[in-house]
Specification:
Largest sheet: 9 strands, mixed
CATH class: Alpha Beta
Number of domains: 1
CATH topology: 2,3-Dihydroxybiphenyl 1,2-Dioxygenase, domain 1
CATH architecture: Roll
Radius of gyration: 19 Å
Shape: globular
Structural class: mainly beta
Strand order of the largest sheet: 15-16-17-14-9-13-11-10-19
Strand content: 35-45%
Helix content: 10-25%
Order of helices and strands: EHEEEEHEEEEHEEEEEHEEEEEH
């Protein structure tokens, strides 16, 4: 299936007002409310990236991936099955509704209108040891506030059945493993990072991460920001707003991206990322032992803190 990326995540939340306030502090903009759902966008071209719906208990409602415009939903349905429905969020469109092996609702969306993206801050010019291009100019000092969010980049999922989910995300969605993690022997895979297959086109190191943790749930959703500078300032902003930090600004060894993770009022992990690795379909996947892996190149913290 030819996908262009994640479009949005739908979350069910017990306290809609608190979740709305968190989303605003995090950098998302509320754009619409319809049928009990509130829609939020980042600063990119997507009409929305997050949907919040009031519910008794927190739960992942659905993940939505965008289908390439060259492919019709009816075409995608031939290979994947599922049902096609109309969408009532900003920008309209339709969705092919599928379910992964653990019952998670996956929507393949098409025809949702796009918006003109927000202006982003200018590119930061960095003086490094061997090259110092910024001369006679003071480094930018952006105002303190929520980081400018470019787009929804990836999600991490807790799963129970590794083999079934690995096969489904590869065969049904057409994702490619970038890095796999094993415990004990290489055939005992317990985690993996999967990217889009867009041939020669360069894409993010992963759009989905799967972690076999004995339950089915959302681990995190992650939005790209322009650079680490905005993440450090964003971290300071979120701390001043008294939100719960799960992990401060760090750098993952797999995918290389700089990350910062916060817990929302419902317990969901919201992450920002920048400076991620890019791959195309020709890049081979790699395999790593979990015993040799680390969560953050800049920290000695226990990895359990990231998953708790």
């Amino acid at each position: 299936m030819l996908l262009t990326g994640l479009h949005h995540v739908h979350l069910k939340v017990p306290d809609l007002n608190r979740s709305r306030a968190f989303a605003g502090d995090f950098g998302l903009t509320e754009v619409a409310e319809a049928n009990g759902c509130v829609f939020f966008r980042s600063g990119g071209t997507a009409a929305y990236n997050l949907v919040l719906e009031a519910a008794k208990e927190p739960a992942l409602g659905s993940l939505a991936f965008e289908l390439d415009a060259s492919v019709e939903l009816e075409q995608a349905r031939v290979g994947a099955g599922g049902e096609i429905m109309s969408l009532d969020g900003p920008g309209g469109g339709r969705a092919l509704v599928l379910h992964d092996p653990e019952g998670g609702e996956i929507r393949i969306v098409s025809g949702i209108g796009q918006r003109t993206p927000d202006d982003m801050p200018p590119v930061i010019t960095t003086n490094q040891g061997a090259e110092k291009p910024r001369r006679g100019v003071q480094q930018q000092q952006p105002p303190l506030g929520a980081p400018p969010l470019l787009r929804l980049g990836h999600v991490g999922l807790f799963i129970k059945d590794w083999q079934a989910c690995d096969a489904w995300y590869r065969e049904t969605l057409g994702l490619i493993p970038s890095d796999l993690l094993y415990a004990g022997s290489p055939d005992h895979v317990v985690g993996g990072f999967y990217r889009l297959d867009r041939g020669d086109e360069w894409v993010d190191h992963h759009v989905v991460a799967l972690f076999a943790m004995g339950r089915s749930d959302l681990h995190h959703l992650s939005f790209e920001v322009p650079n680490p500078e905005t993440q450090f300032l964003g971290h300071r902003w979120m701390a001043q707003r008294q939100h719960e930090s799960i992990w401060g600004v760090g750098r993952h060894p797999l995918g290389s991206h700089v990350f910062d993770v916060w817990r929302d009022p419902s317990g969901y992990r919201f992450e920002t990322f920048s400076d991620t690795d890019l791959c195309n379909a020709a890049i081979p996947s790699a395999s790593h032992s979990v015993l040799d892996s680390t969560m953050d190149l800049w920290s000695d913290r226990n990895v359990d803190d990231y998953f708790s």
